[in-house]
Amino acid sequence: MKHVTSAALLSLGLASVPCIASPSAAQELAGYDRFDVTASHRSMPLSASIWYPAGTYIYRAPVTKSAIWQSTDAYIGAAIAPGKHPLILLSHGSGGNMDALGWLSSQLALRGAMVLAVNHPGTTSGDSSPRRTIHLAPRAADITALLDQVLADPDFAPYIDRDRISTVGFSLGGTTVLNLAGVRFDGDLYRDFCKTHGDAMQDCAFLKRGGVDFDHLSDDIAIDAKDPRISRFVAIEPGMTYAVDDNSLKNTDQDLMFIRLGKEHGWPAADLEATGSNLLGKLDHPAYAVFAPANHLTFLAECVPGAAELLARMDDDPVCSDPAGTDRGHIHQQIIDEISGFLDLGASPS
After folding, report:
1. Would 117 disulfide with which of 64, 90, 259, 266, CB 3.0-4.6 Å?
2. Pick from 175, 132, 126: nearest CA to 4
3. Which residues lie in coiled coils (predicted)?
């Protein structure tokens, strides 16, 4: 993205004055907290967050506040509801961040899941570098380190159903999900893909503008990052599927779901059908859902009134502009329902 949306930099922390919650609002919101993750492959701790079914609580507050995005409220630091809960590991896309996906995390938590996420250094809001984006291994290792820590944390581990651990990712996060399922990528295939399609493919254009040398990609693009503790995988608009190493697919976990946004408006790099990478045809009948009208950016949070016009004046990316006829909120609800069904979560609280 051109600016990785300048306004995203305004949404970096719990916002506004907290509001003491009334007991009658007990089931309205999910619980939310933050912590750091120590990861041996990183020079600094990772920022992590967790959404979860709330038990007793004290106050509510918006998790993010932005001139562009609608915020998501949560019960901050609430107790976790008793019982064992499914665990979802969430990976954001290039230039995204964990809290920007609050619209999804909060709703999955309200359906009974604990949803963990990190900000991936080098590919997160305000820290998004093309030369670091192409290094896939650290992203998968971030998720593995997150899982290691939370399963050993006495504040969270007793509430986790270890037989129901899954991962969800969008865009580059979808690539990370595939890595964790056992998919490996081939640098030569990716080089050929980008040289063939050039700037017509958004990911290739982004990397090219950052000076990435496609003839000398890092070996970690071919990393085997499969984590056997994770049993289900949801990849939303995953990138780099044209560069999948077919030899890795025989050892890939097949409990996969793919979500595609848009048909004629869809992101070409995320075309998994025979008209694109044909990854669907190479796997053993993965679950697959297409929602339209929509495009790649429809996955991002809903925007506040006037945000599209503000971005146009700033000559920034059109992250609030969807194809004609798109109802972003409705698309989000369909995504929530589809993931919840695939992961056997509870019914919508509404």
Report:
1. 90
2. 126
3. none
For 229-239, letters b (16+ CB in 10 Å) and e give: ebbbbbbbbbb
pLDDT score at 20: 63
Mapping DSSP to helix (H, G, I), strand (E, B) and coil, where does residue 291 land?
Answer: strand
pLDDT confidence band for 22 (50 / 70 / 90): low
Please give the Cα distance from 225 to 185 (Å, whole number).
11
| pLDDT band at residue 272 using 50, 70 and 90 as cut-offs | very high
Kindly write down the DSSP assignment for every residue of 47-94, as one continuous string. Answer: EEEEEE-B-S--EEEES---SSBPP-EEEETPPBPSS-EEEEEEE--T
Q: Is the pLDDT of residue 329 over 70?
A: yes
Smallest Cα–Cα separation from 214: which of 240, 246, 245, 180?
240
Is the whole-model pTM more than 0.90?
A: yes
**What structural domains does the chain harbor?**
6-342 (3.40.50.1820)
Q: Is 164 helix (H, G, I), strand (E, B) or coil?
A: strand
* Pick from 7, 2, 54, 55: nearest CA to 32: 54
Share of the chain above pLDDT 70, in %: 92
Q: Could you give phi then psi for residue 169, rounded to 5 degrees?
A: -150, 150
Tokens of 334: 């369909």
Is the CB of residue 45 less than 8 Å from the CB of residue 28?
Answer: no
Cα(147)–Cα(142) distance, rounded to whole angstroms?
Answer: 9
Which strand (E) or helix (H) includes residue 257? Answer: strand 256-261
CA 217 – CA 211 distance, rounded (Å): 12
Contact 56, 79 (CB under 8 A): yes
**59-117 pLDDT per residue, tens:** 999 998 888 999 999 999 999 999 999 999 999 999 999 999 999 999 999 999 999 99
Beta carbons of 102 and 74 less than 8 angstroms apart: yes
